[in-house]
Design goal:
The protein is mainly alpha-helical and about 350 residues long. The protein folds into three domains: about 60 residues, Dna Ligase, domain 1 (2-Layer Sandwich); about 70 residues, no CATH class; about 140 residues, no CATH class. It contains eleven helices and six strands.
Amino acid sequence: MGSLSQIDQPRDESPPPPVTAEGSEAASVPAPLPQVAERTTRASRLSLATASFFLSGLAFALLAVLMVFWPGPLAEETTAVIPRGASVREIAALLEGQGVLSNTFVFRGIARAVAADNLHAGEYRFTPGMRALDVVLMLRDGRSITRRFTVVEGLTSHDIAALVRDDSALSGDLDAIPPDGEILPETYNFNYGDSRSGLMERMRKGQRDLLDGLWANRATNLPLKTPQEAVVMASLIEKETGKKPDERARVAGVFYNRLRLGMRLQSDPTVIYALTKGQGPLGRDLSHADLATPSPFNTYVNAGLPPQPICNPGRAALEAALHPEEHDFLYFVADGTGGHAFAKTLSQHNQNVARWLALP
């Protein structure tokens, strides 16, 4: 079996200690850990960068807010026209050129944020110191300048068309001039750049809508067959009572009394229309020879109503034509005050004519 000293002992398999150059064993001291210092330095740098970035962002945000709400450079009120189809960049450049904006970049940023770049064309009024934000909101909401176009009662369509063509705030051409009696004298609101033909169509629609309502509620037993005849009658009333609106219903009553009796209306404005065709003023007084002018519009030589209106009557004249005053008057003549003297008999009428002719 062998002796006890010969029994195998467990081996020590750990590596031998290192040997130095001199052949001695090195001291068993752990190596230093430089990673800890590097991590500390890196964290400090990251904290400084984060703080710097935050402060820069805060400063930029404060500057942006300041520029948004800071008063604009405009010193006095001005107007500007934003063309149809203009981009936000083009609008910004236009307003900068007119002194409304000091920074187009800020304006474009606000337009993107609060208006989705949807700014309306039109004519706008800008006030001194107006902020970029307020400018964007005004253009976003389309709060443009409202203009007015007024049509005076008694004008012919030729006259009205000339006024529409002369208004430089309107655009485009007129497709055609409507017949007399198809335009409603009124004040119409419009925006810069609206079309001339569009405005004219609004005038015609206004007349149609008004006439439909008035005709449906007309007085009974009127010697009228159609709404068009009511407009013809109203046009005569309008031309006869331009200076005395309160006489309209009375003049209407005279005309209806004469129609019922088969008398000619003998209205001077119809003779003027027969001579001018509604293309302009006569430019002189009527003569006795003019009263014999051969024309279907001349109510001195033709019985009944003219074939068409001789002007564009307003609401009051249309109401008078459909709700005349009931009386026995058959004649009227100017009284020298802008109004008329009314008579029931030819004798009374001749006296009124004599008084009018005697006026200085």
